[in-house]
TrEMBL record:
It comes from the Eukaryota. GO terms for cellular component: membrane. InterPro entries: Neuro-gated_channel_TM_sf (IPR036719), Neuro_actylchol_rec (IPR038050), Neurotrans-gated_channel_TM (IPR006029). The keyword Transmembrane helix applies. Keywords: Membrane, Signal, Transmembrane, Transmembrane helix. It comes from Ornithorhynchus anatinus (Duckbill platypus). The chain crosses the membrane at residues 140-162. Residues 1-157 form the Neurotransmitter-gated ion-channel transmembrane domain. GO terms for biological process: monoatomic ion transport; regulation of membrane potential. This is Neurotransmitter-gated ion-channel transmembrane domain-containing protein.
């Protein structure tokens, strides 16, 4: 029961650390050095390999056009593009926004979730750092549990080995 409790507590602590964001927590330079550089080297778990850069560079003449297209298509939510297309199609009659105001509220909520997800992806390097810290803590707990279980098993086996039967297990009753 104690082991199951310790395992559950370890999972909770590791998940708590792994899912932190830079907006809510900061990591001191000393802890960063210990948890991200020293411990992974000692425990034999290195950093994940860096991702290679994307494809060949584009021509300079198409960079401006690509930047504007990216800004329009990638940065603008699809629902906004849909409402703009409906407005142009109905020539300012309102389109979907006028027909169903509740739909507009739902779309705004979805856009909010998409924006917050995009912001979290933009600070992905810092979040990856917290995931690495969680991994280091998990490795420490793994090695501590392995050591504890090995020592406990050894003590149990040697306890049985050194347990000797007395010369006279049941002394006679004098009476």
């Amino acid at each position: 029961m104690v082991v199951a409790t310790l395992i559950v507590m370890n999972c909770v602590v590791v998940l708590n650390v792994s899912l932190r964001t830079p907006a809510t927590h900061t990591l001191s330079p000393r802890l960063r050095r210990v948890l991200l550089e020293l411990l992974p080297r000692l425990l034999g778990s290195g950093r994940p390999p860096e991702r290679p850069e994307a494809g060949p560079p584009r021509r300079a003449s198409s960079l401006g056009l690509l930047a504007r297209a990216e800004d329009l298509i990638l940065r603008t939510p699809r629902s906004e593009l849909l409402f703009q297309a409906q407005r142009h199609r109905h020539r300012g009659a309102g389109g979907l926004a006028a027909a169903a105001p509740d739909l507009r509220y739902c779309v705004d909520a979805i856009n909010y979730v998409a924006r917050s997800t995009r912001e979290q992806e933009e600070c992905g390097e810092e979040m990856a750092m917290w995931a690495q810290v969680g991994k280091a803590i998990d490795n420490i707990c793994f090695w501590a549990a392995l050591l504890l279980f090995s020592l406990g098993t050894g003590i149990i086996f040697f306890g049985g080995h050194f347990n000797r039967v007395p010369d006279l297990p049941f002394p006679p009753c004098i009476g």
